[in-house]
Design a protein that fits this description.
The chain has a 6-stranded antiparallel β-sheet. It is globular and about 75 Å long. β1 and β2 form a beta hairpin. It has 5 helices and 6 strands, in the order ββαββββαααα. It is of the alpha+beta class and 199 residues long. Bound molecules: adenosine-5'-triphosphate. Adenosine-5'-triphosphate binds next to α1.
């Protein structure tokens, strides 16, 4: 699995549709302060399902939409697409090439797509959860995160080790199963109350 390209259109400082192709080997992105290097990394986080506006240095999610400059009016929507070579099927999908896209309009409407097909956020999260690339993963280390990890609480650090070890998926499944079990217990209690009332 390899990152092939990233297309950013209307996201943060990228008012114009911009495609970055990643060749084999290492890619370095250089530019003056404030030229948008971090915005590129944030576009990657965002398209892979980031839900926290604060993690993207904003107050609300609509802050990621290009909000105008001296020479351009604000845009109405942000669109980011990321393409992976998945010929080794490292990502859990039968596709050999995968393009994941996320769109957000100012009215709050949003869309996620995999190879052009509308999907749920859950499908995006599930696609990346076991790959070490998910939104909580450590494949992207932002400025300040290393200090936060070292200064973090032991439970938080345990969470990091669990995420790296790949147990996050099972924790998520366990939490879902526990919620379902609790609902079923509530229903059972309700049924037993009704039976009691009828008896
Ligand atoms: P540094 O080297 O200082 O870390 P950088 O190259 O990483 O800088 P970024 O932080 O990615 O730069 O980009 C910051 C720029 O993006 C600022 O000029 C800011 O005004 C612009 N920007 C952020 N959000 C938006 C938005 N929604 N619309 C337009 N421009 C935006």
């Amino acid at each position: 699995m390899r990152l092939l390209s990233l297309t950013i259109d209307g996201f943060k400082s990228f008012a114009h549709k911009t495609t970055i192709k990643f060749e084999e080997g290492m890619t370095g992105i250089v530019g003056p302060n404030g030229s948008g290097k971090s915005n590129i990394i944030e576009a990657i986080r965002w398209v892979m399902g980031e839900q926290s506006a604060r993690q993207l240095r904003g107050d609300k999610m609509a802050d990621v939409i290009f909000n105008g400059s001296a020479s351009r009016v604000p845009l109405n929507r942000a669109l980011v697409s990321i393409t992976f070579d998945n010929s080794d099927h490292y990502l859990a999908s039968e596709f050999t090439e995968l393009t994941v896209s996320r769109k957000l309009f100012r009215n709050g409407e949003s869309e996620y797509l995999i190879n052009g097909q509308k999907v749920r956020l859950k499908d995006i999260v599930d696609l990346f959860i076991d790959s070490g690339l998910g939104r909580e993963s450590f494949s992207i280390i932002s400025q300040g995160r290393i200090a936060a990890i070292f200064n973090g609480k032991p439970e938080d650090r345990r969470g990091i080790i669990e995420a790296v070890a790949g147990v996050a998926k099972y924790q998520k499944n366990k939490a879902t199963a526990q919620r379902r079990l609790a609902t079923t217990m509530d229903n059972l209690n309700r049924v037993s109350d009704i039976i009691h009332e009828l008896a």
